[in-house]
Amino acid sequence: MPGLDPRIAKIRERIHQMRRCAIYTRQSRSSDQKLTSSDVQRQFCSEFCRARNWIIREDRYDDVSESSETLDRPALQRLMAALEDRRIDAVVVYRLDRLTRRLKDFAHLLEHFERNEVELVVVTDPDFTTARASQSLLTNLAISVAEFEQEMTRERMAEARSTLKRRGRRIAGVVPYG
User: Fold this and answer.
1) Which end of the chain is more exposed for a tag (fewer CB within 10 A), N or C?
2) Residue 151: is its pLDDT beyond 70?
3) Residue 105: which domain range?
4) What would the pLDDT profile of 6-25 be if each residue is shown by its tens digit?
């Protein structure tokens, strides 16, 4: 606006830059340790947001003992509902594979983010964006590699169980009493 006081313009610009962000964390297995993987992820994400003067929502979106196999995770579902209420400008994750390891699910999440005008921010890749075609290709490749790693882990575990079974060893759980 012509004639706008430069101090007011600067305040408006600063308010525009202040994003309301939600931090999403996920860890596959629960832990008895005092400092969990989710805590560490949250700490890195919080530091990232504070360095940019972003407003961190107090709601915690932490999925503990949740697999990346499905999007049906309690914290992720609460996050998606908050996006639809337009209470969040950016979703911050430590690494992309904490959100999902499946290309199909990632495409679904991105569509949901775009529809609600929410930016996805990845702490380990601050230049991450899906706006450029080359970055979109690299993102799809990263998710495909994560999905491949998950399948390889599944195959190795199945092979190990099969070997134990052939050797007559118990493969899971506590031996039943009685």
Assistant:
1) C
2) yes
3) 6-166
4) 766 655 555 556 789 999 99
Q: Is the pLDDT of residue 78 over 90?
A: yes
Closest CA to 29 of 62, 65, 61: 65
What is the C-alpha separation between 58 and 18, in angstroms, rounded?
Answer: 15
pTM of the model: 0.69
Dmax over CA atoms of the chain, in Å, equals 87
Cα 21 to its chain centre, rounded Å, is 13
- Number of separate domains in the chain: 1
DSSP 115-173: HTT-EEEETTBTT--SSSHHHHHHHHHHHHHHHHHHHHHHHHHHHHHHHHHHTT---SS
Helix (H, G, I), strand (E, B) or coil at 10: helix
- CATH code for the domain of 136: 3.40.50.1390
Is 171 part of a structural domain of the chain? no
Location of structure tokens 């596959």: 28
